[in-house]
Each structure stands twice: as structure tokens, then as C-alpha cells.
From TrEMBL:
<protein>
    <submittedName>
        <fullName>POTE1 protein</fullName>
    </submittedName>
</protein>
<dbReference type="GO" id="GO:0016233">
    <property type="term" value="P:telomere capping"/>
</dbReference>
<dbReference type="InterPro" id="IPR048953">
    <property type="entry name" value="POT1_C_insert"/>
</dbReference>
<dbReference type="GO" id="GO:0032210">
    <property type="term" value="P:regulation of telomere maintenance via telomerase"/>
</dbReference>
<dbReference type="Pfam" id="PF21375">
    <property type="entry name" value="POT1_C_insert"/>
</dbReference>
<feature type="domain" description="Protection of telomeres protein 1 C-terminal insertion">
    <location>
        <begin position="75"/>
        <end position="219"/>
    </location>
</feature>
<dbReference type="GO" id="GO:0098505">
    <property type="term" value="F:G-rich strand telomeric DNA binding"/>
</dbReference>
<dbReference type="GO" id="GO:0000783">
    <property type="term" value="C:nuclear telomere cap complex"/>
</dbReference>
<dbReference type="InterPro" id="IPR028389">
    <property type="entry name" value="POT1"/>
</dbReference>
<dbReference type="GO" id="GO:0010521">
    <property type="term" value="F:telomerase inhibitor activity"/>
</dbReference>
């Protein structure tokens, strides 16, 4: 795998970067004293790389404000969903013209109230693999189960007037095993009623970019970032890898 490949590279006496074959090798000290941008070919040893664990290389990036944030782990998401479960679903917001609602009470000690809202198309429910649903009061485990069954899952909470997205620390959308996040700084979240525009389309595709746009969310993109320190006896150079 990539991690063991990096470790093997680190153990070699030299690492050769093979781009710019037409250029002679240039010492790192010369490069460090040069003005960018220039093209060079180097022959150097990989001294260190960060992060040491591959999964830590994946971050969330906002292309609008250029910010980076850590990908929330399961514990973080569980806490956010637990907090939202403390709000009881508002029955006045159930069974509208564009979604049907089902509610029940869990059998555990907490007796949580859960509501699932199934978005309709042409006043009919679609097949699960084509359906967008919204869930109130669900745990992370319950949300994951639903995301495997339905095309899109949006965690929501009740307000007085409409359903709303959770805090953007949580995903605004889950699709299969992928969680989609929005930028807190750049987003101006709208109420869930905005989704009815997409539901009214002839064939709703439920594309994450379209969902984000109508909900006023600026989506974050998953990026891969690493830092390599290269040495050749004349100096040390930090090289950064940044890719979507």
C-alpha cells in the first residue's frame, strides 16, 4: 500500500524525482536561494514525511475561502446527532405536499422520538434507491443504515416554521458511504423547504452539488495532503502534495 511504499522509499539511499529529464540535477541549496517559479530536477533523500498515518492526510477544503478542516470522526458525529435528538419532532411539519412522514418512539430507556420524511415525486414515493429522505432524532448507527438503503439521507431538526439542517459540523448529506460537509464560514443555510424545487423536477437526480446549492451550502471537498522533507547534503527542502 501507499504507506509501506513511502517507508521503503525512506529506507533507500536516494529518491529520484524523474520529472524534467532534460534538466541536469540541481542542489537543494541552489533551489532554496532561487526565485520562484523555476523548473529543476533533483536527486535527494527522503528524510521524513507527515502525517505518519495515511488517514490523517485526508482533510476537508473550501475552494471559496481556501480553509482546511479535519474530517470529523464517528465520535464527533455521534455527539452532534445526540444533541439534535433532544429536540422533539414538530408534528405540524409532517406530511406536506412534497414529503410523507413516519414517526415512532424507540423502545430503549431514552424513548427517543424519531421522524423520517420521504420526499415524493409527482405525489408518489419512488423506489428506495431513488429516494431522498430526511431524518430527525436518529443515532449515527441508524443514519448509516438508512444511507445504505436510500439514495440520499439528510439529518434535520424541527424549528417552529420548517425543517432545518443541523449545525454544519455534521454532514448536510449522506449518500452511500460518502458524507458531504459544508463550509461554516461561507454557507448561508436555507430551510429544507428549498428542496421542494428539486423534488418538482421531472426526474430528480439528487446530485450533491444541486442539493447544496438549493440549501445555501458551500460544499467542502475531500483533499489529500502530505509534507515530504528532502535532503541532498546541500540543504533540506519541504515538498507538499495537495490533490483532490
Amino acid at each position: 500500500d501507499f504507506q509501506s511504499h513511502l517507508q521503503r522509499c525512506q529506507q533507500l539511499s536516494v529518491t529520484v524525482l524523474t520529472d524534467h529529464q532534460d534538466l541536469n540535477n540541481t542542489g537543494l541549496r541552489t533551489i532554496l536561494n532561487s526565485t520562484a517559479p523555476q523548473q529543476y530536477r533533483i536527486r535527494a533523500k527522503l528524510r521524513t514525511f507527515k502525517p505518519q498515518k495515511l488517514h490523517q492526510s485526508v482533510k476537508l477544503h473550501c475552494s471559496k475561502c481556501n480553509s482546511l478542516k479535519e474530517v470529523p470522526n464517528g465520535d464527533d458525529l455521534s455527539l452532534i446527532l445526540q444533541a439534535s435528538a433532544a429536540t422533539t419532532p414538530n408534528p405540524e411539519l409532517h406530511n406536506t405536499s412534497w414529503y410523507d412522514s413516519v414517526t415512532w418512539t424507540t423502545q430503549d430507556q431514552k424513548q427517543r422520538k424519531i421522524a423520517i420524511h420521504f420526499v415524493k415525486h409527482d405525489e408518489m414515493l419512488q423506489e428506495p434507491e431513488d429516494t431522498l429522505i430526511m431524518i430527525e432524532g436518529g443515532t449515527l448507527k441508524e443514519v448509516w443504515k438508512l444511507s445504505k438503503r436510500f439514495k440520499c439521507v439528510i439529518p434535520v431538526t424541527s424549528t417552529e416554521d420548517d425543517l432545518a439542517l443541523l449545525d454544519l459540523s455534521a454532514p448536510f448529506l449522506l449518500q452511500g458511504s460518502v458524507k458531504y460537509y459544508g463550509c461554516k464560514q461561507c454557507s448561508t443555510p436555507k430551510t429544507i423547504k428549498s428542496l421542494s424545487i428539486l423534488a418538482a423536477e421531472q426526474r430528480p437526480s439528487w446530485e450533491p452539488t444541486e442539493i447544496a446549492q438549493v440549501l445555501g451550502v458551500v460544499p467542502l471537498q475531500y483533499v489529500f495532503i502530505m509534507k515530504f522533507t528532502l535532503v541532498d547534503g546541500t540543504g533540506a527542502l519541504n515538498a507538499y502534495l495537495f490533490d483532490y
